[in-house]
């Protein structure tokens, strides 16, 4: 029985598909199938039912799966112990990021790769809700996300930026005569916003729910540049970070929303109280040092 056979077996069990499992372990599909067959011959029992569309574990396969996972985890643990003693970093590390931010992530990852070429780095882009789920599930080691005033449960944060959210309109818009408006004044105004799942949209929806109304979202786009362009054409009020709206002052008039005052925070987030892999810890340490500025601070979730 070989470790690669157990690795392929676990991959097929998780994917319920030989082709996807082969992609996961970076081996041609016939090679995965051949090794699984050898493992089945050695055990004297079939591990998978291949008769349906999706591959299913047999009763024997279900019984073997936890032992296969334990064996692979033991080997990974042994390698990690040796790596920590020798100072060698290898393995995999995964980082997530929201679409719009001003962090030099390519520079950060390039420097880490230069110092630790044996570590495989993966980068995933998504909205904040998706990336927070990835942190909780363990598929991500760290992520740059947008959050509200409180640290999400189970996560630690390093604040990168903290800005008020404003309503930005064209200079000819009927609301352009105001500099401050309560959120309820936007009840019937066509709003231009980032999509559901983004931190900015979540803050807007939370504020409107507290104020007792559902916002009228007329346009949504995943890029703040597009939001600004739509608002500049008089199509509604764009909900934007205050700093970004101020940078577009030639095209947009910013209106402070208060009450309630909405704020958006860009943070580096990671799982609190969990050691993680040596590679994950090394990248986190590097990222925290790179992002440490005058306003940076670390927050832990409540006990």
UniProtKB/TrEMBL annotation:
List the keywords (alphabetical). DNA-binding, Transcription, Transcription regulation
Question: What is this organism's lineage?
Answer: Bacteria, Bacillati, Actinomycetota, Actinomycetes, Kitasatosporales
Named from the GO MF annotations, one term is: DNA binding
Give residue ranges for domain HTH lysR-type.
1-58
Name recorded for this polypeptide? LysR family transcriptional regulator
Give the matching Pfam families.
Answer: HTH_1, LysR_substrate
Keyword Transcription regulation applies: yes
UniProt family annotation = Belongs to the LysR transcriptional regulatory family.
Answer yes or no on keyword DNA-binding: yes
Originating species: Kitasatospora acidiphila
Any one of the GO CC terms:
protein-DNA complex
């Amino acid at each position: 029985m070989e470790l690669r056979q157990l690795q392929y077996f676990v991959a097929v069990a998780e994917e319920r598909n030989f082709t996807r499992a082969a992609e996961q372990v970076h081996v041609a599909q016939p090679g995965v199938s051949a090794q699984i067959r050898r493992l089945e011959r050695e055990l004297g029992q079939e591990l998978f039912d291949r008769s349906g569309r999706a591959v299913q574990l047999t009763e024997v396969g279900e019984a073997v799966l936890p032992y296969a996972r334990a064996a692979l985890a033991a080997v990974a643990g042994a390698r990690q112990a040796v790596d920590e003693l020798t100072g060698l970093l290898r393995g995999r590390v995964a980082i997530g990021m929201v679409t719009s931010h001003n962090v030099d992530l390519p520079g950060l990852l390039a420097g880490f790769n230069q110092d630790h070429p044996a570590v495989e780095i993966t980068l995933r882009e998504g909205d904040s809700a998706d990336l927070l789920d990835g942190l909780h599930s363990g598929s991500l080691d760290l992520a740059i996300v947008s959050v509200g005033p409180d640290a999400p449960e189970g996560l630690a944060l390093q604040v990168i930026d903290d800005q008020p959210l404003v309503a930005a309109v064209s200079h000819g818009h009927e609301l352009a005569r105001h500099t401050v408006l309560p959120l309820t004044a936007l009840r019937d105004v066509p709003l231009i916003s980032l999509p559901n799942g983004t931190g900015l949209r979540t803050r807007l929806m939370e504020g409107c729910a507290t104020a007792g109304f559902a916002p009228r979202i007329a346009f949504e786009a995943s890029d703040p540049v597009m939001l600004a362009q739509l608002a500049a054409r008089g199509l509604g009020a764009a909900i934007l970070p205050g700093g970004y709206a101020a940078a577009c002052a030639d095209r947009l008039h910013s209106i402070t929303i208060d009450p309630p005052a909405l704020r958006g925070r860009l943070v580096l987030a990671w799982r609190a109280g969990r050691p993680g892999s040596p590679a994950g810890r090394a990248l986190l340490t590097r990222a925290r040092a790179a992002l440490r500025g005058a306003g940076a601070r670390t927050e832990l979730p409540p006990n």
